[in-house]
User: Fold this.
Amino acid sequence: MTGGAGFIGANLCQTLLALKVPEIVVIDDFSTGTFENLEGLPVEIHDASILDRVAVDKAVTRADSIIHLAARPSVPRSLADPLASNEVNVSGTLKILEAARRAGAHVVVASSSSVYGGNRRLPKREDMLPRPLSPYAVSKLAAESYALSYATCFDLPVLAVRFFNVFGPMQSAGHAYAAVIPRFVEAAVNGHKIQVHGDGQQTRDFTYVRSVTEILADAALRRIVHNGPVNLAFGTRTSLLTVISLLERIIGRRLDVEHVASRPGDVRDSQADTKILRTLFPAATLYGLESALAATVQWYTNRQSVDREVPAEPSVQIASR
Ligand code: NAD
Assistant:
């Protein structure tokens, strides 16, 4: 797996371990991921960039399937440095696809609902014309397109999945580029003001990370392929203000909300069409938003108290570069 020390990757490691997958290898440069996320897990870690061909070959040599999650995530980050996003998200993906060809591995590539961008039709169907609004979205569209072209040109077994707004434990919150739910939850747990960009009526297809990792694990174990991109979300549509109301109910008090300017490149509404996902993964589980938010709040609350008690020391096995 690439990007295994990040939010989705570390949750995926736990899902794969629960499924008793015998060998899990992670390659991550720890640019946004952390050792703490993998602490105590029996996974082999390669502390290296996906741009390093030798390191990638070493990490994937015995792989049946590569779940490619490593990326410079977030729209604002790509506005700050478009070239860096392109390098990791596009060239990095090409390097993984080349390594997969050499290793004979199946590949799952993480794309994003941001590729739909300015196309306002709902729900988002995979055959709609993409209209990316940010360098990040362009890089994800290029990454999934390269992956699908490798399936056509080189017969590489490929699945390109478009995540929508994934949330849950281990998602980082305390930086300028954090996603909306971790920002809201951390502010709520700490009694800080919740900052909402725009009017808060914008909607998202929020997806609990456990649903995502269960599908990714199933895709890798059954070597699922599809000849086009596949939405990985459940067709729900929730506004940011509704998320705040749910958090108020879970936490048991009113939350302080401040509206600030909208962000450039952000889309107004997002909701997945789920037909292809349901055909490929008929047993996929949708976890309810409120209980998933409650589990997320619980994780952030526990982490706050652990952070106050003991500074975390990494205790994981790290393979040499
Ligand atoms: P994350 O930042 O937590 O994880 C990304 C991981 O990739 C990190 O561990 C980071 O250290 C690693 N990484 C970055 N550059 C690297 C490089 N050059 N070499 C090796 N490792 C590198 O983000 P995430 O939310 O877990 O996202 C995982 C994937 O899902 C990304 O491809 C992202 O674009 C995609 N995605 C996520 C969401 C979401 O809602 N979280 C939505 C759409 C798409």
About this structure: The chain has one domain: 7-319.
